[in-house]
Amino acid sequence: MKPPLLLLGTHQPGWLSKARVPLFVSDTRLRVYKTLPRAAAPWACDSGGFSELQKYGRWTIGPREYVARLRRYRDEIGRLKWMAPQDWMCEPIVINGGQIGPLKFAGTHLSVPEHQRRTVLNYGAMLDLGSDLDIIPVVQGDTPDAYLRCADLYWTQLGLDLTTVPLVGVGSVCRRQGTKEAGQILRALHTRGLRRLHGFGFKTLGLIAHGHLLTSSDSLAWSDVARKLRRPALPQCVNAGRHKNCANCLPYALHWRTRTLAAAARTADQPALFGWEAAA
To answer: Domain of 232?
Structure first.
């Protein structure tokens, strides 16, 4: 049984040089580094879109600046396999604003179709400015039909058939990833011919329920588990007196990844994406 490729999310860019498993690292973390680490394994770069829209209700970084940083990461860190575009999430809290726990959302106060239009147009800008980079398209929406309409926009706006690209990101599913609706969205995309999908922010429950519909996913859930659920630190961390919990702990993150992959193991077999499985 083979689970989808799981990119381990981390807010510790230094792990790139030592984790030796595929990582998912945000531009928001990398951009402040004057000297970047060299990657020990393949990795992918997140745009930090959720944080941008959550804090400001808009993108404060232009496509040209973002693409320039992506080139720097590709050249200086190395082994960068793909990058997320500057897409627009469609969760109600992102659009309407509000608060979830300690996070305050400014709200974009735009419609779902406008978020989709801006997502597609940004990808068009990425193609123009960064044709040498492996930036993936992302579909956004709030219902299965909306995701299909977003996929259609790539054709009507850019002349791009998403069934022909190596990987398509599925956004705005993090908060519904353990629900039936997430499965409906992924199955609808499969029916449309989009079968090489990356699920952003999938946790263990979502991978168990829907991992067979994904080629890859990323998750930072291990840190929340270690911090919010007050799980005890790993014995080796306790014995070494390193920390009280493992919210920023590489051994804990690797242990969580191993357990999650085992839980999400599935029978559907897919070819290796960019050869990552062998590299990991």
So the answer is: 5-275
- Residue type (1 letter), 155: W
Residue 89 burial (CB < 10 Å; 0-12/13-18/19+)?
buried
Beta bridge partners of 170: 139, 199
Judge whether 114 lies within some domain.
yes
Q: Tell me how far apart the alpha carbons of residues 273 and 255 are, in angstroms, rounded to a whole number.
A: 23
∠ CA 192-193-196, nearest 5°, is: 125
- At 233-245, the pLDDT tens digits run 666 665 455 666 7
**How far apart are alpha carbons 90 and 161 in whole angstroms?**
22
Residue 280 lies in a domain: no
Distances (CA, A) of 50 to 26, 136, 138: 10, 17, 13
pLDDT digits (tens, 9 = 90+) for 38-74: 999 999 999 999 999 999 999 999 999 999 999 999 9
Write the DSSP symbol of residue 116. Answer: H
Contact status, residue 13 vs residue 33, Cβ threshold 8 Å: yes
Residue 179 located in a structural domain: yes
Token representation of residue 77: 């860190």
